[in-house]
């Protein structure tokens, strides 16, 4: 459709005219602008809602909301066209078969072997070995080898050595959806563990001997402690209501040596509504400070984030400080339980704060234990009441921790944002379906590619320049502030307003540090080359003079990639260079540079995944690194800005 | 007066010091004329706390048996608690602190007694003279001159002895204009934008009153900053209704008929007690001991603090935009021209001039736009967020400015030479300091 207008939410003046294309996988808008022809690409699977609004004199407005929080407002000149687009998108955005999803057609031009390698990058067996199991207390159980006991569990689960198949099967019959207690994290240092399950089918008085034995087995697997915590992550009221339906929670009297604890995290429906309310605040055109704060509070979002974090902190503390094992469950044990177990693991084990470890963590606590990705993130058309931002909340918890511990994580914010994007994109097979069983049936590993390999390949873009593996913050357990510092929890505009560049800080210290790091590395390499040359020169100088002219020729070649290196041979000159380097900051770059406090900055180092046209060619992340391309510095970026002063939008 | 008269118990042992996020420490407490000193006296990790009495905002005492507890809330927002054994000692110490922290004579303040332990490298008092500023200015334009009309502070008591004014306006005219402006604060140069030769002036409100008084010299003065055929902007930091009400009290604003080349824009920057209340509520919210997320956000919202920040930044951006984008000269004023006016002019310079984002440049800005420009630090910073007294002159005007700088810093983390710590340090010294920089209300008093 031609002559479509793409509106800017904040300024009606900044609408652009272009052409709208619908393909089998994307909605593409191409600006008419002569030179740039900027393109906006949106994957169908990212579309969460499409709204056709009342026709106006200028055309028919179409509002597309995306799961990665992009909001696109189009005005299509003809009502008929708009209707067609609307009808098409409704169908395209709601596929009914897995085969319709993008990952089955996405081809990053890798051969079979590379694809297989990609899937092997994250190996859970390796991970359990790293944790230190199997050992004297824990063993792998094949009781679920053909999903015979629990179809939402993986085939291989770790259970206490003393838990026989009889106990496991008996316990599974006493748990919702037969999700029996299984190992999530094992702490080598003190034998304490985090186990997970679903709620017991206790009703008002039912008991199950095998289940009681199962919990006892977990306790015995940690000889250092004479009790275990059983953490029910639901609010007490919800758990009690479940009793009427024959479900419920553990009765302390029936189990020997458990300490039972409720941690009130709300259910998926409350979370869905909360996000909805928060997004409404994000979409406000020009909110006053109090509209924003009131709306944020009213959404309850940060309160929920804090509840999840508090639960994780409680468990991490029990494991690391008290040396007590914890069994975590909610109702089915695949939403809140996954959130809480993974937050606790992240706090406990520095490995999960590395890039690779984080992939492993998601694979372990979310993918393998049957978090219902398809239902929660609406990959296929389904019950809207099943949709809920469960993993989004976990990702935000990680971000909140990164804000508190800026040096403790190997990866940066961009890494989180890209993972969030791909949970919804269906571009890679990792998050398809609701369980391991379904994924195996679909032969995901043979037919699609793994996101982890893709992220790993571009890991330079996701590095946190402040991270050092030998830094004290990077080691041991993280102890987040638990004193009443509510202001530690912040609104994450980098995620929820990520497509509105105008709302973000104008300069990124992370990008700047990355550039500095890269430049330093280049200079060091250069230094090495020059030292080698110097050594050669000294050797040959004592020889004859004929060689000298040749050397000069060569130095000209070197001059090609650094201008003054033939002069800067002494270490002092180099260190001077390094010192002056950070001062090439935007403040000094330009004599009369006014700060640009507002307005959309088109230049951004963050690639909007969907706004980039090169997804299919697999080079989408090249644009990430604008500031670090060779010797090019962010100051160049800001230098350009300096000429134009733009001001707070008010 | 001898400080010793006020100190009945100069020293107490076995005192326990509590601070948020720190373990309690036992040690010895000493009182001197200007300091409360606490020392843990532990050999391995001796900890000392030196607290200026002038930093103390409020003090509470309570008793459980013979154990007295003093809670000290500081102007720099710290809260510390001292458990002192012995009722008499505790009462003595509390009353001494109370007396020493509320001395009313400036000359008894610590800066008059302080001797630096470091080597003084330069005379800070003459580091940022307006004459030097003028020299820089003269190298790019000759449209301005230094005027010494106020050399004995007779024309305007809150102005410095020298000011920069348009060259075409003589001292005689300045005296007349001073009579037409609140507190004698006639329009002076605040900032010259080298890029396009536009100027930012600041003043106080014109005294038009209800019958629309005018002053030819004033009109001539402000028009002298305009290029022929160009318009200027008057940024009035009060909303129109407030400006209109001010006429009843003899104040007012520039009326179009008399200033046809000027467009007036009204902004709304809160002042005095509203700011002070907002500040108190904000600090209350920060100190909230509940674990409840909702309480924090609603308290933050109810404090309105961020609204004030936003309003102020918007006004400063407007001023900067008028100068840089519109290529227009700007005159900024509110009522007295000593508070919101200075916030706007100094923030606009931070936005426009990279020099102001260096340490030295920022110091120069504070001297020029706050100290010499006559911001009444002593009145405004007499009490902080914990004060119980409701005097009407206290207001966190300077703090609000510092936070706005911090907010800009957050958006442009690579554009400032200094860090957050520098801003915090300035905040602390504005409220209590060993240095005399922020003493007094204007150059005349200093």
TrEMBL record, chain A:
Identify the domain of life: Eukaryota
Write out the entry's keywords from A to Z. Answer: Coiled coil, Cytoplasm, Hydrolase, Lipid metabolism
GO MF, one example: phosphatidylinositol-3-phosphate phosphatase activity
Residue ranges for the region (Disordered) are 562-650
Any single GO BP term: phosphatidylinositol dephosphorylation
Give any Gene Ontology cellular component.
endomembrane system
Polar residues biased stretches = 562-588
Where it sits in the cell: the answer is: Cytoplasm; Endomembrane system
Answer yes or no on keyword Hydrolase: yes
Name this polypeptide is given: MTMR7 protein
Homology family: Belongs to the protein-tyrosine phosphatase family. Non-receptor class myotubularin subfamily.
Organism equals Acrocephalus arundinaceus (Great reed-warbler)
Stored InterPro entries? MTMR7_PTP, Myotubularin, Myotubularin-like_Pase_dom, PH-GRAM_MTMR6-9, PH-like_dom_sf, Prot-tyrosine_phosphatase-like, Tyr_Pase_AS, Tyr_Pase_cat
Q: Spell out the CDD domains in the cross-references.
A: PTP-MTMR7
Q: Where does substrate bind?
A: 267-268, 330-336
Domain named Myotubularin phosphatase is located at 118-496
PANTHER family of this UniProt entry?
A: MYOTUBULARIN-RELATED, MYOTUBULARIN-RELATED PROTEIN 7
TrEMBL record, chain B:
Q: What is its main location?
A: membrane
* CDD domains according to UniProt: PH-GRAM_MTMR9, PTP-MTMR9
* Single annotated GO MF: protein phosphatase binding
Q: Which PROSITE patterns match?
A: PPASE_MYOTUBULARIN
Q: Which organism is it from?
A: Acrocephalus arundinaceus (Great reed-warbler)
Keywords attached to this entry: Acetylation, Cell membrane, Cell projection, Coiled coil, Cytoplasm, Endoplasmic reticulum, Membrane
According to its UniProt entry, one GO biological process term is: negative regulation of autophagy
* Subcellular locations according to the entry: Cell projection, Ruffle membrane; Cytoplasm, Perinuclear region; Endoplasmic reticulum
Family recorded in the similarity comment? Belongs to the protein-tyrosine phosphatase family. Non-receptor class myotubularin subfamily.
Q: What is this protein called?
A: Myotubularin-related protein 9
One Gene Ontology CC term in the entry: endoplasmic reticulum
Q: What SUPFAM superfamilies would the database entry show?
A: (Phosphotyrosine protein) phosphatases II, PH domain-like
**What membrane topology was assigned to this protein in its record?**
Peripheral membrane protein
Location of the Myotubularin phosphatase domain: 124-446
